[in-house]
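Predict structure. Chain length: 547.
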Amino acid sequence: MGYTVEDFIKSNEFSGIKIINNLYETNREIKGAQFISRADIEISGGGKLLLSSLRVYDNLDKNTVICHLEELNKKGVSGFIIKRRKDTVHQKELFELFIHFCDAHGIPVLELPHNISYWAVLKYVLCHAYDLDIAKYLYSEIVQDQINHFLLHERYDEQTIEIFFKSLETMVGNSVSLYDENYHCIYPITGQKEFTIVGDEKYVPHITTKHEYIRQKREYVEYIQKIDILNYCHYYLVVTEVNEPLSELDFVTLDNIITALFYLLAQDVTKKEMEIKYLRDLNYWLINGGMSDAEEDDASSLLDLSDTDEYRVVIFYLKPENKKEKNSIAQKNETKNLKKEMYHYLPKERIFYNTNHILYIYNEKDWKIKKEFRNTLEEIHKDIQDSLTRRNKKFELLIGIGKSVKGYHGLKDSFKDSKAALEYIGLIREATGEKTKSIVDCAKLGFFQIFTNINDKEELRQYIPYSVIKLNKQDKKRNSELISTLECYLSNKQSIRKTSELMNVHPRTVSYRLSKIVDLTGIEFDNSAEILAVRNGIIILKILEQL
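Prediction complete.
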């Protein structure tokens, strides 16, 4: 005689379990264990210890229930383990019918306390009825059957993953959590715990598996599995031994669960990406001026935008060192990475990815002081640029800030200004002498805005003094660098020494060129009004070269 019902009872493994019918045979051999989760389930082989809450019979009439029980009895079941329910008259009648049938056929019925999981009993019985390798194989089949039933019959919605994880916690008897790639907790929804990876100890369970875990010890031992979703994003599944050490059968559960979880998360990611794309398209048309006022009103409610708040559109753009890389796959991939990195600094719901640049809608009320936002932009720029340099990526992060507008109807104007700030950043660097300037605020462009809004070359040319035009012709004819010398001289407080250092020429060369400039133009360096006009003329000349 092998492992029997009496052996199971005498083990006292589960406190509070007891036989509740009157006529039974405890010497029945247990040749396995199985859930009865539905009436049409196939019970393979005899001698099974069957686990059920009898919920499977709730919607069946008396005759159908008896027929099913008779089929189970023909299989030679060793006994039932149930959790009693007597909430309704039907459930009470069902329970009495069930006990009467089991008494009539000598089948022992054991009542399991509600605080003990069926899965704990199942694992215990299988490990005592079989050797461990067979127990692992049979347990894997049972787990997979439960997962398949869940995936086929559970309608996917926002609660699906939560239901899935609650079931998983019951199966492994320990705490289970899910975190996204930024360590934000997805499950549990409430009572979220801090998570971080503190080590890299690899752990491979003693089962046939393709999964390897990170094992670490903080307050409790944790097993971490990284789940990659189509190389687009990843999650961390964390199982924490808050109740008891994980057994090999628990890792069998996880091995099956990970595949199912990948399927659920892939659905969730796809659904969210479709929503994001829809909102991104709305945002694109809103800020590009492609909507009527009425359409903007409708879109604003979906985008959670107000008609009274103060907004500014900020563009983040990765400028390639090589112009051929513009709109390349490499640029797009780095822009996607940029978006993910920005989630660490800025509200995710205000960040929009658009092919080769990132848009951020800045709402003044989200920041305590404007300086805090400016400091954040500088921090983002430094961190991203340092990362690009370390990884030898030939891109420069540029940030353009549009003007402040009241309400969402003005976003298109702010967007236009932020694009202009980026478009003329090279020119601004030249004019201000700040060669590494990477963050441009449209509100601080000053008179530059006058010229950047003029696209007609001839109209712009009217603002260039004749002296500058004459020097430009001389430079093109003689390659004499008179304009660059004049610009450097004026930008450095008319210092010949500083100009020579910056241009890497002898001071006499600077003096000669300045003399040549005076001879050609008659410029008076003491005339502040004339010098201002000349400096502005040089800037306009550069604008014309970019148009």
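Summary: The CA atoms of residues 19 and 110 lie 4 Å apart.
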